[in-house]
Specification:
Blueprint: H1 20-41, H2 46-50, H3 52-61, E1 68-71, H4 78-86, H5 121-134, E2 141-146, H6 153-162, E3 169-175, H7 186-195, H8 199-212, H9 218-227, H10 231-236, H11 241-244, E4 248-254, H12 258-269, E5 274-280, H13 288-292, H14 317-331, E6 335-339, H15 349-354, E7 359-361, H16 366-378, E8 382-388, H17 389-392, H18 396-404, E9 410-415, H19 432-437, E10 442-445, H20 450-462, E11 467-471, E12 491-495, E13 501-506, H21 509-522, E14 527-532, E15 534-536, H22 540-546, E16 551-559, H23 564-574, E17 580-586, H24 596-602, H25 607-616
Parallel strand pairs: 1-2, 2-3, 3-5, 4-5, 6-7, 6-8, 8-9, 9-11, 10-11, 13-14, 13-16, 16-17
Antiparallel strand pairs: 10-15, 12-14
Helix pairs in contact: 3-12, 5-6, 8-9, 14-20, 16-18, 21-25
């Protein structure tokens, strides 16, 4: 693979001397490098391939870091990183100690704002632009947001305020007709209508130009048309939604046509006040498999470049959840599935195909998803909202105020719970337990195995009557205990009940606890394991059982503050426990990107750490 141009780019200034032919060649080299890197490290392939020309032209036209580019979500920033002095390190992306897979201010002055979740760019960019205005800085601020992110409410809050800004502010709408799953809703239809009627803006501009050049009468007629409420105005000045919000709208522009992008960006740059530049791109551009199946290649693990096939395809919890929900829905027409633009990632593809009328993709709008589910529940439906742990954080108020306070029966399937690994700080699912644990009228299950996942789902739907969460990790089972009896769904006991030491845990950490137990047993050490499956409310019998041990150690793959370990300690204290009690959990910090195994080890949640702690305590 040749990178003769890309390897010479040390900063965006190096782009300025390249001619159009060299820029096109550079884009080809960037695509090859992205495909090669993601095939080895995993990451976001389709989003990055879709914005290569757009990113190159942004850095060609604008002057970063004086001009600020704020990337929405940030999963499309690989080209940006290579053009801003990080090409030599791009092979380290998403690896421990290497580049982050998302923009990170501590990594480079060119990363204007950290990202990882959607719909934040316009608000953040407007704040940056206002701060520049206050300091007399007239440089440009550019928010790059996808059409999928425009399904998130925060984006509209930002647009609503940015329309009043009078300085150099540009929103680039990267319209690829996709978020992760296919975009849904009124905004998707609206953008489609703009894409299929691209001529009106050209007509509007031509009429303005003609009127401006008519001596004496031209300008007054132009002004009259702008103020008029007549049908003539509607024909000539057919405003978009963005115009109505105060933006000057340019587009749609072919996001893979360098000349068209250059002209559009220069036009946007010459316009005072807020501009919305509508760019149409193809997700997965330049890699056949990603173009034909951009959803599967949105975020992907290692894969074979020649075939597009993943290197590992083991069964995972998301798949088991989807299969289980389909089985239940087959016999119960009240069961519905809700997702926030994550149909593929949460295992709901089959459900969406088989039970179309009961499948609801609400776009990237987790708050709406929860309250919408609550509305379904008031009329006797049983909504199951599947969402990644890191994205559920957005909906805390709705979970508390709309679901739990009204004791409405809805199920939240919390996917990617716990440490997720290479996606890093913005995606680690370690806050959901402390968040949900603080909400009354809430039940939380944390299964360790696939069969427990199925049991938890059935219990959540038919054995509970308020808010229920089932949390499960990314990937599959770590290991299986052959002599483990069928779960009671509340708690299970494994090991020597007469031991003096008790290890308590839940979720996939139980597999690590068993490995520690077996190693200790070989050395003549004796411990007992209490495995919680229902972690809120904790079964009172589990508390009574734990009271009989001299030393208790709780291991938790979540934040210590407000977690189940602290709750268990409180419940033990209430019944007079006076023995030794210690918690190993994640301290007050964010967890950087590394493999799941390494992150567990660093936080003393792996089998070897459990062994050492239990042996030496």
């Amino acid at each position: 693979m040749s990178n003769e141009i890309l390897s010479t780019i040390k900063s965006p200034q190096d782009l300025k001397s390249l001619d159009e032919k060299a820029l096109v060649k550079l884009c080809e080299e960037i695509r090859e490098k992205i495909i090669d890197t993601v095939s080895v490290n995993g990451g976001h392939l389709s989003p990055n391939l879709g914005v290569v020309e757009l990113t190159v032209m942004l850095h060609y036209i604008f002057n970063c870091p004086e001009d600020s580019i704020v990337w929405d979500v940030g999963h499309q920033c690989y080209t940006h990183k290579m053009l801003t002095g990080r090409y030599s390190d791009i092979n380290t992306i998403r690896t421990e100690g290497g580049l982050s897979g998302f923009p990170k201010r501590s990594e480079s002055e060119y990363d204007a704002f950290n990202a990882g979740h959607s719909s934040t760019s316009i608000s953040a960019a407007l704040g940056i632009a206002e701060a520049k205005r206050l300091s007399g800085d007239d440089s440009f601020t550019i928010a790059v947001i996808g059409d999928g992110s425009l399904t998130g409410g925060l984006a509209y809050e930002g647009l609503n305020n940015a329309g009043r800004f009078k300085k150099n502010f540009i929103v680039v709408l990267n319209d690829n007709k996709m978020s992760i799953s296919k975009n849904v809703g009124a905004m998707a239809r609206y953008l489609t209508s703009i894409r299929v009627k691209p001529t009106y803006l050209r007509v509007k501009n031509k009429v303005e130009k003609i009127l401006t050049h008519i001596p004496i009468l031209g300008s007054p007629i132009k002004s009259l048309l702008k103020r008029s409420k007549s049908r003539v105005k509607h024909l000539v000045y057919k405003d978009t939604l963005f115009d109505q919000l105060g933006f000057r709208y340019y587009g749609p522009v072919d996001g893979h046509d360098m000349d068209a992008l250059k002209n559009a960006m220069l036009a946007a740059k010459s316009t005072k006040g807020p501009v919305l530049l509508h760019v149409v791109t193809k997700k997965g551009k330049g890699y056949q498999y990603a173009e034909s199946d951009s959803a599967s290649f949105h975020g992907i693990g290692q894969f074979h470049i020649e075939t597009g096939e993943p290197i590992s395809s083991k069964k995972d919890f998301s798949t088991v959840f989807g299969e289980g929900l389909c089985r239940i829905a087959q016999n119960d027409e009240k069961v519905c599935a809700v997702t926030a633009a994550m149909r593929t990632g949460t295992g709901l593809v089959d459900f969406s195909r088989i039970y179309k009328d009961r499948f609801f993709d609400v776009g990237i709008a987790e708050e709406h998803a929860v309250t919408f589910s609550c509305g379904l529940a008031t009329k006797g439906m049983i909504p199951v909202f599947a969402v990644y742990s890191t994205f559920l954080q957005r909906a805390y108020d709705q979970l508390l105020h709309d679901a739990a306070m009204q004791k409405l029966h809805m199920v939240v399937a919390v996917d990617r719970a716990g440490i997720v690994g290479e996606d890093g700080e913005t995606h680690q699912g370690v806050f959901d337990v402390s968040m949900l644990n603080s909400i009354p009228n809430t039940t939380i299950f944390s299964p360790c195995y696939f069969d427990e996942m199925k049991q938890s789902l059935n219990t959540a739907i038919y054995g509970c009557n308020s808010l229920v969460a089932i949390r499960y990790p990314r990937g599959g089972e770590i290991s299986r205990v052959s002599d483990m009896p069928q779960s009671s769904m509340n708690y299970d006991i494994y090991g020597d009940r007469n031991a003096k030491k008790l290890l308590i845990t839940y979720g996939r950490l139980f597999a690590n606890a068993v490995k520690a137990y077996e190693k200790l047993k070989q050395e003549g050490e004796s411990i007992c394991i209490l495995k919680l499956c229902r972690i809120k409310p904790i079964d009172k019998n589990a508390i009574e059982f734990a009271k009989g041990f001299e030393k208790i150690h709780f291991f938790e793959e979540g934040i210590l503050a407000g977690g189940i370990g602290e709750t268990f300690d409180y419940e033990l204290t209430k019944i007079g426990y006076t023995g030794l009690y210690k918690i190993t959990a994640i301290e007050d910090k964010f967890i950087p990107h590394a493999t799941v195994a390494d992150a567990l080890r660093y936080n003393k949640l792996d089998a070897d750490s459990m062994y050492e702690i239990m042996k030496n305590d």
